[in-house]
Design goal:
The chain is of the alpha/beta class. The protein has helices spanning 34-43, 58-61, 64-70, 79-85, 168-178, 197-203, 208-213; strands spanning 2-8, 13-19, 24-28, 47-52, 75-76, 107-108, 114-119, 122-128, 137-141, 146-150, 153-154, 157-158, 186-189, 195-196. The chain has a single domain (2-213), classed as Metallo-beta-lactamase, Chain A (4-Layer Sandwich), CATH 3.60.15. The chain is built from seven helices and 14 strands. A six-stranded mixed sheet has the order 1-2-3-4-5-6, with helices on one face. It binds zinc ion (2 copies). Residues 55, 57, 132, 151, 159 line the site of one zinc ion (ZN).
Length: 214
């Protein structure tokens, strides 16, 4: 799979697009700027196979309804975020109104802890990593050696835990479990540049306490 990021919206969310040799695409976190994402899909003549959401925050899901209208495909999200992601509570004026709900028949609130998920011929594991939001997940694409982390871990940082449903203690456990992944794992997060797990272990202040504890 080739992996591309399109930074979208007021909070510059990384919309990740994974493309295989058959021009089939997986879209992770279509946060905003649907026309921008759509232009790329058109230009590359891609066939969207599915949408994966690292969590429900408005800046990660707001382009969904528009994209799905043109490129219908299953949308997967953790159940603990599915129940509010498309409600009026999930907005941040003036940047983001509440996200338009996608068609119910395409929304699957089943992105829970699991291994061996398949999409567009790629295998991925789902790691439940609550803390930033109750239904935050990290998506580990095995053959690509890549972890999509949403707002759980970011290069040099970690997601806030002071939003509704956030939990600092859950975040701590979630960050800790990421340390068991291969050090060379590429970290593709929800905001900012990509990194690797080994670089984060060396430099990310949010991981330091686990270092000394080891
Ligand atoms: Zn978030
Ligand atoms: Zn975010």
């Amino acid at each position: 799979m080739k992996i591309k990021s399109i930074p979208v919206g007021a909070f510059e969310v990384n919309c990740w697009i994974l493309v295989n040799q058959r021009r089939e695409a997986i879209i992770v976190d279509p946060g905003a700027d649907a026309p921008l994402i759509e232009a790329w899909l058109q230009k590359m003549r891609l066939h969207v196979q599915g949408y994966l959401l690292t969590h429900g925050h408005m800046d990660h899901v707001s382009a969904l309804a528009t994209l799905v209208a043109k490129h219908p495909a299953p949308i997967r999200i953790h159940p603990a975020d599915a129940n509010w992601a498309f409600s009026s509570s999930n907005q941040m004026p003036p940047y983001y109104p509440a996200p338009t709900p996608p068609p119910e028949e395409l929304l699957q609130a089943d992105l829970v802890e699991s291994t061996g998920n398949e999409m567009a011929g790629s295998l991925f594991n789902v790691l439940e990593t609550p803390g930033h939001s109750p239904g935050s997940v990290c998506l580990h694409f095995i053959n690509e050696n890549t972890l999509f982390t949403g707002d759980t871990i970011l290069a040099g940082s970690a997601g806030r835990t002071d939003f509704p449903g956030g939990s600092a203690s859950d975040m701590k456990q979630s960050l800790k479990r990421l340390l068991s992944l291969p050090p060379k794992t590429v970290i593709c997060s929800g905001h900012g540049p990509a990194s690797t797990l080994e670089d984060e272990i060396q430099t990310n202040p949010f991981l330091q306490e686990f270092q000394t504890a080891k």
